[in-house]
Amino acid sequence: MDRREPLLSRLDRVARIDGSHLPNSARYCVLLLIFILSLVMATFCGYIFFVDPNLLFGNIKFSMEPVAYAGLGLDGDTAPPAFNVTLRATSTFNRRFCSTGGGTVQAAFSGLTVAAGHVARFCVEAKGSAVIASTVSSAWTALPAAFRDRINHGRQNGGVELEIDLGFENEIKGPMWVRCRAILDAKQRTRCRVFTLSSF
């Protein structure tokens, strides 16, 4: 009985301890932890809503106007391959969206790049739109005859798909790629897809 008494006494003392009996140092640590967590949450929310509202909210969409071209060897055309590309960017972000520098534009048929060019740095105002224009040209003085024949055959059998790719970087979203696909000689605007390493 004597040997059990100290153990029972210790268990009884432990059972009586609750939040109201915490030592002052423990209460201070709990309050400090709550304060730090509240400060972190307030800072994060303030950053999202005031400093960088487009971190989580908003997106940017691209569309492509009908592409003017030359040098595909169609209808007796003998000029070097070139394309006049016009993209329209529309933003729903609450702040200006800009590329960190210029971008690259490529024109391709069936995965084969036939022309390339550059675009200057561009910005889209908050909840606004902007036009991005570029002329892309080819290092070839003329397309290979087999490729011209392939394009001609496609035009006569439902159309030839032209792919325009725009690559650039944004300070928040990082590297971004815009892919537009349209039938050659299309008369209507085409919607494009946007790819990025971070989510919108």
From TrEMBL:
Transmembrane segments annotated in the record for this chain: 28-50
Tree of life domain: Eukaryota
Transmembrane helix in keyword set: yes
Keywords carried by this UniProt record: Membrane, Transmembrane, Transmembrane helix
Transmembrane helix as UniProt keyword: yes
PANTHER family on file: LATE EMBRYOGENESIS ABUNDANT PROTEIN LEA-2 SUBGROUP DOMAIN-CONTAINING PROTEIN, OS04G0515000 PROTEIN
UniProt name for this protein: Late embryogenesis abundant protein LEA-2 subgroup domain-containing protein
Native species: Urochloa decumbens
